[in-house]
Amino acid sequence: NAHVCPDCDGYESRGKKIVVVGNGRRAVGMALNLATWSDDIIICTNGRSPEIDEPEYCDKLDALNIPVLTSPIEQVCYDGRAIHCLKLDDGMQLDADKIFFTIGQYPADDLCAQLGCERDDEGHTLVDRHQHTSVLNVYAAGDITPGPQLAITAAAEGATAALAMHRSLVPEARKLAPRARATALR
Question: pTM for this one?
Fold first, then answer.
């Protein structure tokens, strides 16, 4: 009943009472994604600052009637494996069928940092469509790059990077000239 991925576990949450535990842009984004499946969503910051200062965040949460509570969670109430509520330290009790955590995922890529690869504001190494970074002959794939943090995605990115690396090693004299692009039939 505790999840981290609205894409993977959202469908199973349809029509359920959902509490998103987190703050800032991540919590807002997760709550908005989960609104596809339920109209009973609350964000609980668990004592942290909401960090929801952007008017866009407030407008979208207000439009979907998603409240933001800042009290720390005191207790998770459950029967067997089923969560049924969260008790906050201010005495409030939130009915909950599903809890989603917005765990901050930060790439562990000291090498890319040392090499000076360009990064986004979440610390992910930026790459082009061939997984090449901003540093010549340096490629990156998987959870250190932006996008879905899925094993299948990482495997595909790794294969793309490997093919691009191999092509970069082939001398120009051994490469065929690119063909002209085909035009679409109308």
Answer: 0.71
Q: Is the pLDDT of residue 158 over 90?
A: yes
Q: How far apart are the first and last CA of the chain?
A: 52
Mean confidence (pLDDT) of the chain:
90
- Cα 175 to Cα 128, 137, 160, 168: the distances in Å are 22, 18, 19, 10
CA distance 155 to 5: 19
Interval 112-133 mean pLDDT: 92
- pLDDT class for 46, splitting at 50, 70, 90? very high
CB atoms within 10 A of CB 59: 10
